[in-house]
Task: inverse folding
C-alpha cells in the first residue's frame, strides 16, 4: 500500500521544475507510505512519477518504486497488492517472457505481465486491489488503471498544461498552478449520498477513475482533454451472466463459498510484515477471521473497539467470538471524548466532503491495529455481494404492501409515522425488545419507523431504493444553485439489457456506488492516515463472480440477509454468538450533536458561517438544526453532511 502521484507535461521540459513539483505532490502523501520516498523523471518526454512506499512485499531496494522494465520501455508507479502475482510469474516463466527477476515484488510482475499481454489483458488476469500509472516510452502514452471495485483511489485532471494524477486530491494542492473551483453538482450529489459519486470529485474538471477501468493519454491529448475510460471488468456483466448459471443446491453453494473465501484469505496473507484482522462481531468479519484462524498455525491478531452507549457497542460480541476462535484479541473501549477528538482531523483525512460518520470508529480501530500490525483484513463487501443490509430483507416486501394501497392511504400512513418522535420510540422499543429473544429485537426502532415513513409513498421499487439511499431527497433545494447529474453507477444501471430480480438490482447498485464510493474510500483514508494497509477477502475476484451465481433465495431467506454466508459461519461459530439484529458500525451521532458536539456544530451551522460561501440554504439548515435540538426528529446524518462540507471548506477553500 502506497501513495502515488505524477505529471504529464505536454510541452516537455520547457517550463522546468518538474522534479520539484513531483516531490511536493508526493510529500503530501507521506502518510500513505512512511518507509521511503522516490521519484522518476523524463524531462524530454515531460513525464514524472512520485512514490511513497509502505513496505509490505519485498522490503529490499529491489521492491523500490517507481520501477522500470529491463528494456526501459515501461515505467510504473503502483499502489496496492496483486494477490495472484506468483501465479502470473509462473505463467510468464512458462511462456518464456519472464526477465531475470530482480526481487519478489508484485510491482515487478505487473511490468512484465503488461509487456507480454498488454494493459487490458493483464488487468483481467490481476486479482487484487490497485491503482497505478504506466508510462510507455515507445508509444509516449500514459495509462491510469484501477481495480475492479475501486479499493484503491486514483484522481486525475489538468492543471494548466499539466495532466496530474494522485492517490488523494490533497496532492494537487501542492502544485504551484492549483486554482480549483468547487463543483456545485458534485456538492449536490454529496448532500444526497454523503459522498461524491464517481467519476466526479468536489473540484470542477477533476475525476475519479471508475472502478474496473483504465484510461490512456496519448501524445495527441490536448490540455483539458479527459478521454472516456475503458472498462476491463463489469460487475453488471457478471450479474447478467450469473443468472444463466445459478446454484440450485444450497449445500454445494456453501461448500464453494467456503473454498473460494478460504482461498481468498490465504492469498491475502501474502506479506513480509505482520498481518491481523478487524473483528466487529458481525457476520462478515467473523467469517473472515474464522477462515483466517483455521489456516493459521498461531493465534491471529484481531482488533475491535467499543462504545459506552450499549446500543452502539459491539465489542462484547466480538470478544466472545474471539475467545471461541482462539485469536489474540485486542479491544479498546473509547469514550465520547476519544471519538470526538478525531473530528478536527477528518477534513484533512478525507480531502473532499465525506460524511459517513462510521469514519470515526473505522479510524479508531485502524489506529488500534497499527500498533501491532501493518496489514489488516476486513469483512467489507459481504453486505453488498450477499444481501446483508436491512433494506435487502424488507424493502421489496414493504413496497409490495404499500403499493397495494390507494395513494391517499399511503399518504395517511406516512403522515401517521411522521407524528412519532424517533427518540422516545427508540427508548420504548429497546425496553420492549428486552422481553423477547435477541434475534427478534429491533435496535433504534424509531429510526427504522422514520425510514418506513420515507418510502411509504414511493411509486416504484427504483424510487423506493433511491429514497432509502438518500440522506436528502431533494438536494438541489438545499445547495444554492445546485443541480444533479448522472453518475457512473447510474449509467451502469441504465445499461442493464434485461430486467433482473429486485434483490439483484439493489445489491448491484450498492456494489457499484455505496461500496466503491463510500465504504472502500472510508476504510482507505481512515487506515492510510495511520499507514495501515487493509485487505478485503470478500472482494476477491473469484468470490465476487461467484456471488453473481447465487440466487436471491440463498441471499435473503426466512427474514434474514446473507443467508448463505450465515450457513458458512455456522460451520465455525455457534449460531447463538451471531444471531442478533444488524446494527452497523456506527456512533451515537444524534445524541452527540445534542450534547458534546453541540457547540462545535452550532458554530459551523451559524448563519454567518453558512453565508461566507453561500453554498447552503441557511434558513433550511437552521430549521433542521432547531428541529434536531428539540428531539422531535433525528437529523444527525443530514446535519453531518452540512457539517463535514463546512469543515472541509475551512481546510481546503481558504
Result:
Amino acid at each position: 500500500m502506497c501513495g502515488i502521484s505524477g505529471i504529464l507535461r505536454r510541452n516537455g521540459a520547457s517550463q522546468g521544475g518538474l522534479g520539484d513539483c513531483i516531490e511536493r505532490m508526493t510529500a503530501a502523501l507521506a502518510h500513505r507510505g512512511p518507509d521511503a520516498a522516490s521519484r522518476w523523471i523524463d524531462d524530454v518526454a515531460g513525464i514524472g512519477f512520485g512514490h511513497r512506499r509502505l513496505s509490505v512485499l519485498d522490503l529490499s531496494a529491489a521492491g523500490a518504486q517507481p520501477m522500470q522494465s529491463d528494456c526501459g520501455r515501461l515505467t510504473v508507479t503502483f499502489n496496492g497488492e496483486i494477490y495472484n502475482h506468483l501465479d502470473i510469474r509462473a505463467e510468464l516463466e512458462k511462456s518464456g517472457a519472464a526477465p531475470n527477476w530482480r526481487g519478489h515484488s508484485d510491482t515487478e510482475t505487473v511490468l512484465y505481465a503488461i509487456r507480454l499481454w498488454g494493459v487490458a489483458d493483464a488487468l483481467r488476469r490481476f486479482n487484487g486491489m490497485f491503482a497505478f500509472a504506466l508510462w510507455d516510452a515507445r508509444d509516449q502514452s500514459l495509462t491510469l488503471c484501477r481495480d475492479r471495485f475501486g479499493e484503491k483511489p486514483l484522481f486525475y485532471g489538468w492543471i494548466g498544461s499539466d495532466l496530474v494524477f494522485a492517490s488523494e486530491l490533497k496532492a494537487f494542492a501542492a502544485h504551484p498552478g492549483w486554482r480549483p473551483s468547487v463543483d456545485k453538482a458534485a456538492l449536490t450529489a454529496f448532500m444526497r449520498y454523503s459522498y461524491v459519486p464517481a467519476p466526479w470529485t468536489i473540484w470542477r474538471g477533476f475525476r475519479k477513475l471508475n472502478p474496473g477501468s483504465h484510461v490512456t493519454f496519448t501524445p495527441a491529448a490536448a490540455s483539458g482533454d479527459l478521454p472516456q475510460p475503458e472498462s476491463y471488468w463489469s460487475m453488471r456483466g457478471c450479474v447478467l451472466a450469473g443468472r444463466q448459471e445459478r446454484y440450485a443446491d444450497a449445500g454445494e453453494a456453501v461448500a464453494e463459498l467456503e473454498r473460494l473465501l478460504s482461498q481468498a484469505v490465504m492469498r491475502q496473507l501474502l506479506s513480509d510484515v505482520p498481518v491481523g484482522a478487524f473483528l466487529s462481531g458481525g457476520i462478515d468479519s467473523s467469517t473472515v477471521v474464522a477462515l483466517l484462524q483455521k489456516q493459521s498455525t498461531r493465534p491471529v491478531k484481531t482488533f475491535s473497539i467499543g462504545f459506552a452507549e450499549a446500543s452502539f457497542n459491539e465489542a462484547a460480541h466480538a470478544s466472545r467470538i474471539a475467545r471461541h476462535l482462539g485469536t489474540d484479541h485486542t479491544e479498546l473501549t473509547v469514550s465520547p471524548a476519544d471519538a470526538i477528538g478525531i473530528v478536527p482531523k477528518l477534513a484533512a483525512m478525507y480531502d473532499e466532503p465525506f460524511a459517513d460518520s462510521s469514519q470515526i470508529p473505522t479510524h479508531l480501530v485502524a489506529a488500534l491495529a497499527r500498533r501491532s500490525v501493518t496489514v489488516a483484513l476486513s469483512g467489507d463487501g459481504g453486505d453488498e455481494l450477499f444481501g446483508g443490509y436491512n433494506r435487502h430483507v424488507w424493502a421489496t416486501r414493504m413496497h409490495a404492501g404499500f403499493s397495494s394501497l390507494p395513494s391517499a392511504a399511503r399518504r395517511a400512513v406516512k403522515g401517521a409515522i411522521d407524528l412519532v418522535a424517533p427518540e422516545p420510540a427508540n427508548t420504548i422499543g429497546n425496553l420492549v425488545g428486552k422481553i423477547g429473544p435477541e434475534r427478534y429485537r429491533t435496535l433504534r426502532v424509531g429510526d427504522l419507523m422514520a425510514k418506513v415513513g420515507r418510502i411509504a409513498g414511493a411509486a416504484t421499487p427504483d424510487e423506493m431504493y433511491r429514497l432509502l439511499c438518500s440522506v436528502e431527497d431533494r438536494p438541489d433545494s438545499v445547495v444554492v444553485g445546485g443541480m444533479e447529474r448522472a453518475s457512473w453507477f447510474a449509467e451502469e444501471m441504465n445499461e442493464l439489457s434485461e430486467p433482473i430480480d429486485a434483490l439483484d438490482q439493489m445489491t448491484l447498485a450498492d456494489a457499484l456506488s455505496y461500496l466503491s464510493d463510500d465504504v472502500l474510500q472510508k476504510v482507505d483514508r481512515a487506515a492510510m492516515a495511520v499507514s495501515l494497509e487493509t485487505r478485503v477477502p470478500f472482494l476477491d475476484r473469484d468470490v465476487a463472480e461467484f456471488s453473481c451465481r447465487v440466487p436471491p433465495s440463498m441471499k435473503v431467506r426466512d427474514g434474514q440477509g446473507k443467508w448463505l454466508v450465515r450457513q458458512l459461519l455456522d460451520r465455525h461459530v455457534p449460531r447463538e454468538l451471531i444471531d442478533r439484529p444488524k446494527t452497523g458500525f456506527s456512533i451515537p451521532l444524534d445524541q452527540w450533536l445534542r450534547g458534546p458536539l453541540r457547540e462545535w456544530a452550532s458554530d459551523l451551522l451559524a448563519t454567518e458561517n453558512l453565508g461566507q460561501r453561500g453554498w447552503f440554504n441557511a434558513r433550511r439548515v437552521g430549521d433542521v438544526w432547531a428541529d434536531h435540538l428539540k428531539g422531535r426528529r433525528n437529523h444527525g446524518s443530514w446535519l453531518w453532511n452540512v457539517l463535514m462540507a463546512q469543515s472541509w471548506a475551512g481546510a481546503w477553500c481558504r
